[in-house]
Amino acid sequence: MITLLGRRVCRTPSIPASPGSSIAGSSRGTSEPAALSQISLDRAVISSSMLTRRDKSEMVAELRALIREEIAAVRADLTALEHRQAVDLAITRQGNLLLDLRRQVEDLDNRGRRNNIRILGLPEAEGELPHELLTGLFSHLLGEAAPEDFGIERAHRALRTPRRDGVPRDLICALASFPLKEELMKAARSRPDLRYMDAPVALYHDLSQTTLDARRALRPLTRLLQERRIPYKWGFAFSLQARVGNMWHMLQWPNDVPRNAGLPHIAIPNWILVGPPARAVGPEEAAHNLHLELELPRRRGGPNGPEE
């Protein structure tokens, strides 16, 4: 029995010659009419097992229907794939747009803080007067060049609860004069061992939390630059500028890391805080980036800001 597209075709096995067949008759003397009758019977059996024209037409129709179904399934898969690709592209574009908008908001936030100074280490006491503390610190910093009025518009401690270990909260102030702020920052940079009220004090630019998070994400790179004694500085509002040889390189996005600057390849975790990658990241590199996400000790100071 053979199955063709769901249709069963029976093939009757060869019937052995009966005692009255022509073959046996030659040896047993069977009559010729009996042999002819057996041959006619065999032909009838064979004819009944052969496919008719109608059977062939039905088989062809079933084949065509099956091919149409397969083609329709392939077309549906292609349509779904094109739709997914379009959705992925739209998501990527929207992600880049959101990151650009966040960069613009970050820039506006930092520009609103340009006249601000964040002071670390200044002792904190209950009932203190921030304006008087800052006036004394700035006068101690500038010496005879200190003006009579520093134009302090606002001053307050960082908006968080005091720490239990006694570490003072940062003191933030806004000055009316940007040139005076720059003069104070320059004087503070020239005195890395600045002390006031028997405590080490450091002055930094007041930056948005987004910028601080982005700088913190670049710690592996800045530490490498420090180990190689490569000078670097932070740009406004967010950029890392390093001088290799006689050339300055600026980093704002992951693909800005120069390959020919004599630096080894280093994976930077949390690049989403900085911007979108310029190329697809494979699973091995993604796992490597995740592996580098270590518990690094938080640094309280440095030449360019509270977070390096």
Provide an overview of this structure.
InterPro entries: Transposase_22 (IPR004244). This protein has helices spanning 22-28, 32-49, 53-111, 130-142, 178-189, 209-217, 219-227, 283-291; strands at residues 2-4, 7-9, 116-120, 152-157, 171-175, 195-196, 199-200, 202-205, 232-235, 239-244, 247-251. The chain has eight helices and eleven strands. By secondary structure, it is an alpha+beta fold. The two termini are 82 Å apart. It has three domains: 2-50, no CATH class; 116-205, Alpha-Beta Plaits (2-Layer Sandwich), CATH 3.30.70.1820; 209-291, 2-Layer Sandwich (Rec A Protein, domain 2), CATH 3.30.250. The strands form four sheets. It has a four-stranded antiparallel β-sheet, covered by helices on one side. A three-stranded antiparallel β-sheet has the order 9-10-11, with no helix packed on it. The protein has a two-stranded antiparallel ribbon with strand order 1-2.
